């Protein structure tokens, strides 16, 4: 699939090709959610980092706070500690909120911003029954499996098993706090995005959580200079449901050369 850009408002040209990608996962997820995408890439001279947020994956037992602000601080610290200079920030869902805030904090190190089925930075109020289902799912493999099955269209069984492993899945405190964080959003989400570099916004055509129309509206209001595309045949997790297509779209946009 090609990346579509509006004729009247093209994405900003690249001043530098990213030499590193930082992949930021979303609510309920961990770094493992990026593995199918990473497996599609054999990139020359590109560092790929997929950290766990506090309370997830290898950091399941890490103390909070489990908030957007703390997540941003942790990612900023990682980028500085690893001395990453020309970074493409790729965020999925709640991770897109975090990625945008990191770009605000580190504009000189952010070469590009890619938002995948992004939760609106201003927040996203959900119906009460959805709130209860999501917010109360911490530490419950069956509940989290049901949520992923409900909001995806072709999520592989092996990914379901990895993401709902009791040893690494988000527990109660992290799930409740991150739910409150992403639904509450951040004040800067009420104004246009301040990042002025190249941006790509990706929607998924069968996403029942962040539908295409919501992504397109957010892009028009907050990211008018961004490129925009959608992944066909995918629910909320295109990086796992359509990893080949999603990887190709991102690599093409970033100008990253794959090994033969």
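^ Assign residues to that structure.
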């Amino acid at each position: 699939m090609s990346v579509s850009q509006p004729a009247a408002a093209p994405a900003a040209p690249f001043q530098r090709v990213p030499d590193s990608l930082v992949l930021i996962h979303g609510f309920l997820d961990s770094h493992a959610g990026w593995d199918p995408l990473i497996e599609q890439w054999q990139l020359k001279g590109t560092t790929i980092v997929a950290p766990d947020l506090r309370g997830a994956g290898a950091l399941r037992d890490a103390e909070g706070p489990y908030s957007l602000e703390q997540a941003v601080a942790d990612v900023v610290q990682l980028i500085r500690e690893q001395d990453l200079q020309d970074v493409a920030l790729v965020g999925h869902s709640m991770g897109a909120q975090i990625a945008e805030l990191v770009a605000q904090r580190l504009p000189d190190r952010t070469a590009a911003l890619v938002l995948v089925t992004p939760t609106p930075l201003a927040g996203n109020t959900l119906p009460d029954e959805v709130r209860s289902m999501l917010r109360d799912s911490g530490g419950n493999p069956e509940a989290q499996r049901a949520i992923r099955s409900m909001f995806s269209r072709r999520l592989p069984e092996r990914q379901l098993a990895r993401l709902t492993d009791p040893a690494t899945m988000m527990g109660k405190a992290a799930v409740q706090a991150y739910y409150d964080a992403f639904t509450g959003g951040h004040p800067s989400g009420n104004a246009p995005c301040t990042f002025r570099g190249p941006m790509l916004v990706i929607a998924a055509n069968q996403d029942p959580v962040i539908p295409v129309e919501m992504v397109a509206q957010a892009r028009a209001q907050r990211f008018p200079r961004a490129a925009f595309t959608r992944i066909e045949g995918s629910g909320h997790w295109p990086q796992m449901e359509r990893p080949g297509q999603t990887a190709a779209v991102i690599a093409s946009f970033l100008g990253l050369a794959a090994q033969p």
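DSSP finds ten helices and six strands in the chain.
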